[in-house]
């Protein structure tokens, strides 16, 4: 076991619990892990309670439990589940590192605000997923895994019948037919969970490699009769389809969807508007009692036309659940994974007892979205 280093970097985490958020960016076991890397931890009172961690748990692990203002004042780096608000950014001292999903793909103004405040912004959304050294830092993968698992449970709870086939004295109940659109990390977890619940599962993804992944879990791959052979994009994500390809895909999905009882959509593109996979015509074609869980629902839209955060029932009796916060509903496990991701990002930048950036390293260059050192003057 590695010896514990003398702590020289101070890491702070605040209470971010809200109506939709129950996770915390630091767990007691990670306090111990970071101390071995030379990092001491501060956490706000009550920050872990919604994830089932008490202040005493953190104190026993070696963290200091403090009011929020003291955490902000003393920390060299702050870790977040969600990015800090504008008011909080204004109160963070210059030179502090801010680590989290900062929305740097779509919100240049926010990144500029971090820069103006003299903060170092570490945007985990820009993690190069192809780097083997970065796998333990991949917050999107870890949280999408939780989301996919929970999506299947939410769908099963909302569906008015059984997922598995049931043979009773009163007759046999057929298994639910579940369609999962998007076979990335969340989709694969949804497939596995729905299969374990006994449903007959079919899945679709534009990426050619996804067929083998879907079938390896015992699900059927939905054949739309289309060839998007270049569906793989950068970093393991599906590429954006052309307008013509999107129209073809939507029409085919709408037609195929009519045979399913439950549809779960998981197709997200980090920081961008999610692709529309099921149109209003497709929703209207579903039978009464069908359930849709749209994990991509947000202020940017969703995978399902007309979906919004929350639950609504269409005039045709279809339940549409816009559910972007599912990982937060499994707060204990989600926090365990997220805290490891954030801590490993932080530890990567701890060099010789202090936080440092090396923009010659691919990972550093990708993650630092604000507070980059000025380019050297040209001779």
- The name of the CATH topology of the largest domain is Rossmann fold
Termini, distance in Å? Answer: 48 Å
Number of domains: 2
Largest sheet: 7 strands, mixed
What level of helicity do the residues show?
25-40%
What's the average pLDDT? 91
Order of helices and strands: EHEHEHEHEHEHEEEHEHEHEHEEEHEEHE
Beta-strand share of residues: 15-25%
Count of strand segments: 18
The CATH homology group name of the largest domain: NAD(P)-binding Rossmann-like Domain
Question: Number of helix segments?
Answer: 12
* Largest sheet: spatial strand order: 3-2-1-4-5-6-18
Brief summary of the model shown:
32% of the residues lie in helices and 17% in strands. The protein has helices at residues 28-36, 55-61, 68-74, 86-91, 108-116, 139-158, 185-196, 210-216, 243-257, 280-284, 331-348, 362-367; strands spanning 9-13, 39-44, 64-66, 77-79, 97-100, 120-123, 166-168, 171-173, 177-181, 200-204, 220-221, 262-265, 291-294, 310-313, 319-322, 350-351, 354-355, 368-370. It has a seven-stranded mixed β-sheet. A seven-stranded mixed β-sheet has the order 11-10-9-12-13-15-14, covered by helices on one side. It has a two-stranded antiparallel sheet with strand order 7-8.
């Amino acid at each position: 076991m590695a010896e514990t280093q003398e702590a020289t970097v101070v890491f702070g985490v605040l209470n971010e619990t809200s109506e939709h958020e129950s996770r915390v960016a630091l767990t007691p076991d990670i306090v111990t892990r970071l101390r071995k890397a030379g990092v001491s931890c501060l956490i706000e009172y009550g920050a872990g309670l919604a994830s089932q961690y008490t202040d005493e748990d953190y104190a026993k692990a070696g963290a200091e439990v403090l009011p929020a203002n003291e955490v902000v004042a003393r920390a060299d780096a702050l870790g977040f589940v969600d990015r800090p608000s504008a008011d909080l950014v204004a109160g963070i001292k210059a030179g502090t590192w801010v680590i989290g999903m900062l929305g740097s793909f779509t919100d240049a103004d926010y990144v500029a605000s971090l820069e103006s405040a003299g903060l170092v912004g570490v945007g985990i959304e820009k993690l190069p997923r192809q780097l083997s050294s970065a796998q333990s830092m991949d917050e999107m993968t870890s949280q999408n895994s939780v989301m996919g698992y929970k999506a299947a449970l939410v769908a099963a709870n909302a569906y008015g019948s059984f997922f598995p086939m049931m043979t009773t004295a009163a007759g046999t109940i057929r298994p639910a037919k579940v369609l999962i659109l998007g076979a990335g990390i969340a989709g694969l977890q949804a497939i596995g969970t729905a299969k374990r619940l006994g449903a007959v599962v079919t899945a679709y993804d534009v990426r050619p490699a996804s067929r083998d992944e879907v079938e390896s879990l015992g699900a059927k791959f939905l054949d739309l009769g289309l060839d998007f052979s270049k569906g793989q994009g950068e970093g393991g994500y599906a590429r954006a389809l052309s307008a013509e390809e999107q129209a073809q895909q939507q029409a085919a999905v709408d037609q195929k969807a009519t045979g399913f009882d439950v549809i779960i959509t998981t197709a997200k593109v980090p920081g961008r508007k999610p692709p529309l996979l099921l149109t209003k015509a497709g929703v209207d074609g579903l039978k009464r009692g069908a359930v849709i869980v749209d994990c991509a629902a947000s202020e940017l839209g969703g995978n399902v036309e007309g979906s919004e955060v929350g639950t609504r029932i269409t005039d045709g009796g279809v339940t549409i659940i816009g559910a972007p916060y599912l990982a937060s509903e499994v707060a204990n496990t989600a926090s365990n994974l997220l805290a490891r991701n954030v801590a490993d990002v932080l530890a990567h930048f701890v060099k010789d007892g202090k936080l440092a950036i090396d923009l010659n390293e691919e990972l550093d260059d990708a993650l630092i979205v604000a507070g980059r050192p000025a380019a050297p003057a040209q001779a």
